[in-house]
Specification:
alpha+beta, MutS, DNA mismatch repair protein, domain I, DNA polymerase, domain 1, Dna Ligase, domain 1, five-stranded mixed beta sheet, five-stranded antiparallel beta sheet, 15 helices, 13 strands, 21% strand, globular, binds thymidine-5'-triphosphate, binds magnesium ion
Length: 399
């Protein structure tokens, strides 16, 4: 069977996501909480739920919910203020285990990572075996449980880890990709959010299978330049590599457009989307960046980069976007008619953002920018990726 698979179908990617992470750590440190409803989050009047144990979820409590509402739904739960330092410690233990399996570990947040274990397959026999081993090691060494998804690419692995939580292990067989994806709602596709979903629904497209079977010309008015991208995802195709994060180098995001693009509003919308992605990754790793870089490639493969340092470190979407936009506009002034094949933005000069709790120190970012980012992060974390994005990102070309 393996002989019929393309190279990218032979990769073995694991996505690991810890179960009710903060709450599980609290239960670990106080055994009397085991099996009880536990809610971790801000306890003040404007606090929100960071996470809830599975026992508390039965009462309808979930992440990003106002704490007051959680208390009404589940008055008997234990309410606990986050202890970030402790969660970081446990996270480091978990990531140490990951690196025993492969050096190709891409952390997405404290409790979540992609592992490319293609080269470790021989050693462990099968992907399923590796999955089981990882889960067992996590349980043994840290006392916590994780859900694991295995597939030949990141997109499928991530969906797989989510469908049998908690303590799940799901393997997507390359020959069963359509059976796995087709029945899922289109909202499971990264980037299809509240604004786009209704437009697809209006076309009668509710499931990934329906999107897969829809002609690109029908999708374009709604999904624009990203139609091809979404249709590839709907087919279970995702060639992105696992990118091991070296916490000191750079974070970037770039796209090659299906067709070269010259319209400024669309290019800016793409840039904003990238600023969101980059800044979200900075925040997930509690980093700040001091320099913004924009990369532009024209149809003749001529590539330019433009960079500039910020007055102070930042991880705010708005701050990074403003700088990227300024860099882009400066280039655009003298290249108004040049179509663009590839557009990217990134950041360098990364440093630790500190505790990230309250102090704003000499940050460039306003409090309201930070607050907006936090709300976006909590919702986006919950739903995988790009569930909500800033207004401009949703701007699409009209047919
Ligand atoms: P998640 O992996 O999204 O949630 P979880 O691990 O608590 O539960 P599960 O994966 O089993 O569904 O997030 C990991 C941690 O990140 C979570 O324990 C707390 C924190 N977090 C927040 O602080 N705010 C949020 O809105 C979310 C979603 C998570
Ligand atoms: Mg989790």
């Amino acid at each position: 069977m393996g002989d019929f698979l393309t190279d990218s179908e032979k990769r073995a990617i694991v996505h690991v996501d810890m179960d009710a992470f903060y709450a599980s750590v609290e239960c670990l440190d106080d055994r009397s909480l085991t099996g009880q409803p536990v809610v971790v989050g801000g306890l003040g009047s404007r606090g929100v739920v960071a996470t809830a144990s599975y026992a508390a979820r039965k009462f309808g409590v979930h992440s990003a919910m106002p704490m007051g509402r959680a208390r009404r739904l589940c008055p008997s739960a234990h309410y606990i203020k986050p202890r970030m330092q402790r969660y970081r410690e446990k996270s480091a233990e978990v990531f140490t285990i990951f690196r025993d399996f492969t050096p190709l570990v891409e952390g997405l947040s404290l409790d979540e990572a992609f592992l490319d274990v293609s080269a470790s397959l021989k050693l462990f026999g099968s992907p399923e075996n590796i999955g089981r081993e990882i889960k067992q090691r996590i349980r043994q060494d840290t006392g916590l449980t994780a859900s694991v998804g295995l597939a030949h690419n990141k997109f499928l692995a991530k969906l797989a880890s989510d469908i049998r939580k908690p303590d799940g292990l799901v393997l997507v067989d390359p020959e069963q990709v359509h059976a796995f994806l087709d029945p899922m709602p289109i909202s499971r596709l990264w980037g299809i959010g509240k604004r786009t979903a209704p437009k697809l629904k209006a076309l009668g497209i509710l499931t990934i299978g329906q999107l897969r079977r829809t002609d690109l010309s029908v999708l374009r008015p709604v999904l624009g330049n990203r139609s091809g991208h979404y249709q590839r995802l709907a087919n279970g195709i995702d060639d992105r590599e696992v990118e091991p994060v070296r916490p000191d180098k750079s974070i970037s995001h770039e796209v090659t457009f299906d067709t070269d693009l010259a319209e400024r509003p669309e290019l800016l919308a793409e840039l904003q989307r990238q600023a969101e992605s980059v800044s979200r990754r900075l925040r997930a790793q509690r980093l700040m960046a001091s320099t913004v870089v924009v990369k532009i490639r024209d149809p003749g493969f001529h590539t330019v980069t433009r960079s500039r340092s910020l007055r102070a470190g930042s991880n705010s979407t708005q701050t990074l976007y403003r700088m990227a936009r300024a860099l882009f506009e400066k280039w655009h002034e003298s290249h108004k008619t040049t179509a663009i094949r590839l557009l990217g933005m990134g950041v360098t000069g990364l440093e630790d953002a500190g505790s990230g709790d309250h102090d704003t120190g000499d940050r460039l970012d306003s409090n309201s920018d930070q607050q907006i980012d936090r709300v976006f992060d909590s919702i986006n974390q919950r739903y995988g990726d790009a569930k909500i994005v800033h207004g401009q990102t949703l701007r699409r070309k009209k047919p």
